[in-house]
Design goal:
The chain is mainly beta. The protein has one domain. The protein has no helices and three strands. Strands 1-2-3 form a three-stranded mixed beta sheet, with no helix packed on it. Strand 1 and strand 2 form a beta hairpin.
Length: 66
């Protein structure tokens, strides 16, 4: 409903909504997958996308652990 920073914010990872999944990969190493959502501004990163505010949004990732 409200976003105070443009896009990814000052440090590039301050999205209004973020999903973060911690997991162990096939080699046994810990990994973190992060994805952000915002509705105003821009980002330089490919792990986020802009969405329309005040609307339901369905997110599907076919490369979840890439």
């Amino acid at each position: 409903m409200y976003q105070s920073l443009d896009g990814a914010g000052f440090v590039g990872g301050e999205y209004p909504v973020m999903v973060q999944v911690a997991y162990i990969d096939q080699r046994g190493d810990p990994q973190t997958w992060t994805y952000g959502f915002y509705y105003t501004g821009k980002t330089l990163y490919d792990n986020a996308e802009d969405i329309r505010p005040n609307n339901w949004y369905t997110f599907r990732s076919y490369e979840f652990f890439s």
